[in-house]
């Protein structure tokens, strides 16, 4: 069946929903997500969203902090854009109903996280993402032009390739006409034709064994764009959050927000000794790449699987008031954080790279925009500054909306796209092949492409992933399409891009650290 919309949005996190709200007065919008509307990385965000909002802070300081964290690879113009547009986008979130905590004088109650030179993180207790996600869901549900397709899985974007034309990676006139989308309730594949498509599918945490990301984060958008010959970059820069709660077997790993270190939390080793000063003078509040590597080194030196975050010296009532979700979660596991140290270990958390976009969020494929974690804007460079990603998502959704609104009237639907053809396929008899292969991808990536890398490890990872790639493509060709087989293809694709782009970087920079090239290459 064919459906037509002015705007097709794939993903209902902050990037997708804020774009929807900004274009919906102009035309009909399809908002697709592969589970319910809530389940997105956005929902899980704890610490908050960075913005200069008080008179004693300055744009220049936020810009400088972002550039320092990015380790020489940020695009300065992008950093300036995002930082300067932040206050207006915060106002927009508030108009949409988002409630940021305030102090008794009515000013924003600002937190500080690693790499920030000032208190500038707006938050809603320790569940900022849930507050944002729920407020936006309420809004999109009320808009008459926004049509919500939950449990709809986007399989591929539509380009000239589907008209039988030969499209190569370096063609500069590839166009996107929408997507093939699987309705997971009926198992039917629909052709969604669109004048404009927005990719907002979030991150790739699930290519690793241990991640803070929910199950939806399988790199689908990045894989779809890569297969459609679009540009994808900076995939080697995977951010491992230093402090995920150590609770073996729990997936996703529960996050212990970095704001707790801004609040005074101190990292300690298994002997109860502070160790961060050995690695960086900023101690527990050094940027994430440094803290995650320090923890990794300490764990390896001591032969243990976690270190500790200690907030027992802080006022117990204040801890409970400021971090109610973390307090309750730990208590449910028998850890009273006002008395006990919290066991923590790094976990895959955020992808700095992704689908390459320009300052209007345009991808290398015409009529296709990307925003949020699946995109690579140039803001984060080699390492993202904490709480800059929610900010990037809303600023770039806004840029995309402005550009899309200016072109949508000049575009028409590409009616010649054929329906999805699944002739000759049948249900996979062995679901176990898919689930087992997914686990194997996680093992390969965590073992060989983690916090510390080497030429040998990357080569080994690529060789092993290649076997899974070939097996999976054969299975895909003879299977009726399912979310499971598509996600497996996508995590293999995303893993491949991480490894290949890591191999191309012959230096250690930001989040990419390799023992074979421990130094940075000078940038002119
Ligand atoms: P998401 O919010 O992840 O949304 C992705 C959407 O895409 C989902 O709706 C999903 O269903 C849909 N989707 C994916 N694939 C498909 C498909 N094939 N078909 C259809 N739909 C699809 N950042 C901060 O700035 N501050 C924080 O405090 C913070 N804390 C975090 C805490 C945790 C535990 C995590 C995991 C992340 C945190 N981040 C934080 C990062 C931040 O939350 C994300 O980068 C951001 O929310 C991403 O938003 P998004 O809109 O790009 O994607
Ligand atoms: C956190 O709360 O520590 C996460 C913040 C982020 O990922 O930006």
Q: Could you walk me through the main structural features you see in this protein, from its secondary elements to its overall organization?
A:
With 524 residues, the chain is of the alpha/beta class. The protein folds into 3 domains: 2-45 and 126-236 and 352-410, FAD/NAD(P)-binding domain; 242-348, Flavocytochrome C3, Chain A, domain 1 (Alpha-Beta Complex), CATH 3.90.700; 430-480 and 482-514, Fumarate reductase/succinate dehydrogenase flavoprotein-like, C-terminal domain (Methane Monooxygenase Hydroxylase, Chain G, domain 1). 35% of the residues lie in helices and 15% in strands. The chain has 14 helices and 16 strands. The protein has helices at 14-23, 41-44, 59-69, 76-95, 128-142, 220-227, 259-262, 288-302, 316-322, 324-332, 389-407, 431-448, 455-478, 483-504; strands at residues 2-10, 29-32, 49-50, 121-122, 146-149, 152-157, 178-183, 188-199, 232-233, 238-245, 266-268, 307-310, 342-351, 354-356, 368-370, 375-376. The strands form 4 sheets. Strands 1, 2, 5, 6, 7, 8 and 15 form a 7-stranded mixed sheet that branches. A hairpin with a 4-residue loop joins β7 and β8. The chain starts with a strand and ends in a 20-residue tail after the last helix. The mean pLDDT is 96. The structure holds flavin-adenine dinucleotide (FAD) and succinic acid (SIN). Flavin-adenine dinucleotide binds next to α1, α2, α5, β6 and α11.
């Amino acid at each position: 069946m064919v459906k037509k919309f002015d705007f097709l949005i794939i993903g209902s996190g902050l990037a997708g929903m804020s774009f929807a709200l900004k274009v919906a007065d102009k035309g009909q919008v399809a908002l697709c997500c592969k589970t319910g509307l809530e389940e997105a990385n956005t929902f899980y965000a704890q610490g908050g969203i960075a913005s200069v909002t008080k008179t004693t802070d300055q744009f220049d300081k936020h810009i400088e902090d972002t550039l320092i964290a990015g380790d020489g690879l940020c695009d300065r113009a992008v950093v300036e854009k995002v930082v300067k547009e932040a206050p207006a986008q915060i106002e927009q979130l508030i108009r949409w109903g988002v409630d940021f905590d305030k102090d008794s004088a009515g000013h924003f109650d600002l937190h500080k996280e690693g790499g920030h030179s000032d208190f500038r993180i707006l938050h809603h207790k320790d569940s900022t993402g849930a507050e944002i996600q729920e407020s936006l869901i309420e809004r999109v549900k009320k808009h008459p032009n926004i049509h919500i397709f939950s449990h709809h899985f986007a399989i591929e974007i539509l380009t000239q390739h589907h008209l039988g034309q030969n499209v190569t990676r370096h063609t500069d006139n590839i166009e996107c006409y929408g997507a093939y989308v699987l309705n997971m309730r009926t198992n039917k594949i629909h052709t969604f034709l669109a004048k404009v498509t927005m990719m907002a599918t979030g991150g790739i945490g699930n290519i690793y064994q241990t991640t803070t990301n929910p199950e939806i984060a399988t790199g689908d958008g990045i894989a779809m764009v890569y297969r459609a010959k679009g540009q994808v970059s900076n995939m080697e820069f995977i951010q491992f959050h230093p402090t995920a709660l150590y609770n073996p077997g729990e997936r996703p790993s529960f996050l212990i927000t970095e704001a707790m270190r801004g609040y005074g939390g101190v990292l300690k080793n298994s002997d109860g000794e502070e160790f961060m000063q050995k690695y960086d003078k900023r101690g527990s509040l050094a940027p994430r790449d440094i803290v995650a590597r320090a923890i990794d080194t300490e764990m390896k030196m001591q032969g243990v699987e976690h270190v500790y975050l200690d907030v027992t010296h802080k006022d117990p009532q204040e801890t409970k008031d400021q971090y109610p979700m973390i307090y309750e979660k730990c208590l449910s596991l028998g850890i009273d954080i006002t008395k006990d140290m919290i066991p923590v270990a790094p976990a895959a958390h955020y992808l700095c790279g992704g689908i390459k976009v320009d300052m209007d969020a345009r991808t290398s494929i015409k009529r296709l925009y990307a925003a949020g974690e699946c995109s690579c804007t140039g803001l984060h460079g080699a390492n993202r500054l904490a709480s800059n990603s929610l900010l990037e998502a809303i600023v770039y959704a806004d840029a995309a909306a402005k550009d899309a609104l200016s072109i949508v009237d000049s575009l028409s639907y590409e009616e010649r796209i054929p329906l999805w053809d699944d002739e000759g396929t049948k249900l996979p008899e062995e679901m176990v092949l898919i689930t087992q292969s997914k686990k194997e991808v996680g093992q390969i990536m965590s073992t060989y492409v983690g916090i510390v890398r080497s030429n040998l490890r990357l080569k080994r990872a690529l060789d092993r992933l290649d076997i899974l790639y070939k097996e999976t493509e054969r299975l895909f060709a003879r299977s009726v399409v399912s979310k499971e087989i598509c996600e497996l293809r996508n995590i293999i694709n995303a893993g491949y891009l991480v490894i290949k782009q890591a191999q191309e970087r012959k230096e250690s920079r930001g989040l990419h650290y390799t023992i074979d090239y421990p130094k940075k290459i000078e940038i002119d």
